[in-house]
Amino acid sequence: MGVLSVTLDQWTDDEINSMIEVGGNSYANAIYEAFLPEGYHKPHPDSSQEERADFIRSKYESQEFLKPRLRIVSSNSSLEATYSRKHTVSNASHSASFNSEAGMVEFIGILKVKVIRGTKLAVRDLISSDPYVVLTLGQQKAKTSVVKRNLNPVWNEELKLSVPQQYGPLKLQVFDYDMLSKDDKMGEAEIDLQPMISAATAFGDADLLADMQIGKWLKSPDNALARDSPVNVVNGKVKQEVSLKLQNVESGEVDLELEWIPLNQ
Question: Signal peptide: which range, if any (predicted)?
């Protein structure tokens, strides 16, 4: 009989105590197995390695049995609430032998992105396009609806993404929807989140501040800004207006409004 070997992470005393406080493995199972289909049989000790591997992938990687609003990765929006600020994400390799490595991902806040409009977007059909926007932050993706036959679409749609402690740029892509073929690219851009998050962190609780500017992301040849992007406190909320000139395309701009919500709110 073969033995499946895994390498375990070292847990600190604080991490162990935190897990005990929330109920340990039984509590985790109550969350990750909350939506097991009726009649579904979990693997037992005599189950094959393949059956156990499939169950682990479904439970932790795909999060098929987790309440939808708690899923860390979603096609439309990301995690807004969970039982702890630390979440375990299992990434399963697809090699011949199944291995898993668990890592702790700590989220520091929620990013609301209001996708307002596009202007002078590129033509990808005969005389127009059917544009939609895709936002990507790490492994998370969110997208708007499709606006049919419009080069100056107005979406006014709000998307949400969780921001990890180690965050990178927010990536924006515009596509032309095609029913019978692959969607065509209509440009892309990246948004540096550091100016907004750093300003919000430095000034503290926005509810205690008057309406004011607390930061700015400056237009430069190294970014996709169409104009300088101020970070403001508006009615107790940290917001940033962003106008992007799409890259790798003949024309097009996209206007956004970002809002930062720290997890302690």
Answer: none
Outline which parts of the chain fall under CATH 2.60.40.150.
Answer: 108-262
Of 150-154, 163-167, 232-236, minimum mean pLDDT range = 163-167
The residues, ordered by sequence, that sit 6+ positions from 260 with a Cβ below 8 Å of its Cβ are 109, 110, 111, 112, 196, 197, 200, 238, 239, 240
Q: Is the pTM of this model over 0.85?
A: no
CATH code of the domain made up of 108-262: 2.60.40.150
| Range 61-66, long-range pairs (CB < 8 A, 24+ positions) | 61/90, 61/91, 61/92, 63/32, 64/35, 65/32, 65/33, 65/34, 65/35, 65/36, 66/31, 66/32, 66/34, 66/35
